[in-house]
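User: Design a sequence. Structure:
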């Protein structure tokens, strides 16, 4: 178990492409950190540099009190869980889980004890003599977890481990992985493009965009106080509504419609409002034009326009469903202002 520190870590690929711009952060011992961002943002490159599978172009990486830039992946005391499980098809579950230990010449009795412990933890006892082809996707992913657990590593690295599973199994496995990580207390770095996984699993989230870190924070910080319009639109489904507006004399507005009081200086701004911070309210001061109602069972999404700009409203299943004009009010502090040029929160 260990703290991980990245100081100015960067990656330039041999063709000159800067996949990761200098990044610095510390992952305290036992923390579950999630790297999230769209395809190509550099999150796998970052993980692979931590794993030692990719050379570090600049900066210093330490795991525990060791600088590991030049240390072989096998000697970094890490265990990785991949999207494709990477199980040996000809070996039983028992052999797959214990294989890494066998290679390290650990005594048979100890291997058997560790495999039994991991198998009990992962509910794999009934499958130990099966081959991977006789398992479901979720069971295979558990075997991959088992193989990581028995190594007793200082650090778990997860590279989109749930991407191959169907939605229901993904939900179940993310709860299992999170619970297991809590129980084992192993520092973990988890890469995903799925913001729901990031929100539900992370102690802290690192949001990446085009090779740069946009924000580091707890799920609640990232969701409630996005540092940039990129974070605001990436985290949340549907994302925060972003509209072009103005600040005039202490009022944030869209055209003639005033949305909130603000201390920001006069000028053009981007206004952000979360869909759930808009309340259907017959006495409300704002008129929306609703074009489309999406029925989602437990709630509804209304898609419409305010001052000609698109926006979504998240309402309960008992709220109005009709298209046309809808009066709404905003929850207190619903409006977040961003710099219209840089996208940074004001
Ligand atoms: P995904 O979710 O699609 O895997 P990612 O955020 O993990 O995306 P990376 O795999 O880290 O992205 O890639 C970051 C960027 O670096 C991408 O634009 C990719 O095309 C580029 N890249 C990756 N490997 C190389 C390479 N060997 N040479 C040049 N560019 C590369």
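Assistant: Done.
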């Amino acid at each position: 178990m260990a703290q991980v520190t990245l100081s100015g870590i960067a990656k330039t690929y041999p063709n000159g492409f800067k996949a990761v711009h200098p990044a610095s952060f510390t992952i305290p011992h036992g923390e579950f950190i999630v790297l999230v961002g769209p395809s190509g943002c550099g999150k796998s490159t970052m993980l692979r540099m931590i794993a030692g599978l990719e050379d570090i172009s600049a900066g210093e990486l330490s795991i525990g009190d060791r600088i590991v830039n030049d240390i072989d992946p096998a000697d970094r005391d890490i265990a990785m869980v991949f999207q494709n499980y990477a199980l040996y098809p000809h070996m039983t579950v028992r052999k797959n889980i214990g294989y890494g230990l066998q290679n390290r010449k650990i005594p048979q009795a100890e291997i058997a004890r560790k495999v039994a412990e991991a198998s009990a933890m992962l509910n794999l006892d009934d499958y130990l003599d099966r081959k991977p082809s006789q398992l479901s996707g979720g069971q295979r992913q558990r075997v991959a977890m088992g193989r990581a657990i028995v190594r007793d590593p200082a650090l778990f690295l997860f590279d989109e481990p749930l991407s191959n599973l169907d939605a229901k199994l993904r939900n179940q496995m993310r709860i299992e992985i999170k619970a297991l990580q809590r129980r084992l207390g192993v520092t973990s770095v988890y890469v995903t493009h799925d913001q729901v996984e990031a929100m539900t699993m992370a102690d802290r989230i690192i949001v990446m965009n085009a090779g740069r870190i946009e924000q580091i924070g707890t799920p609640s910080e990232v969701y409630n106080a996005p540092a940039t319009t990129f974070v605001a639109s990436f985290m949340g489904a549907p994302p925060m509504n972003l509209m072009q507006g103005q600040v005039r004399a202490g009022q944030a507005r869209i055209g003639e419609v005033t949305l909130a009081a603000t201390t920001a200086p006069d000028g053009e701004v981007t206004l952000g409002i979360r869909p759930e911070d808009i309340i259907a309210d017959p006495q409300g001061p704002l008129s929306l034009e609703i074009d489309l109602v999406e029925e989602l069972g437990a709630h509804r999404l209304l898609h419409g326009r305010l001052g000609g700009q698109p926006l979504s409203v998240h309402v309960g299943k008992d709220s109005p469903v009709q298209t046309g004009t809808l009066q709404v009010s905003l929850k207190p502090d619903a409006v977040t202002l961003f710099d219209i040029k840089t996208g940074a929160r004001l």
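The mean pLDDT is 91. The chain has two domains: 4-234, 241-339.
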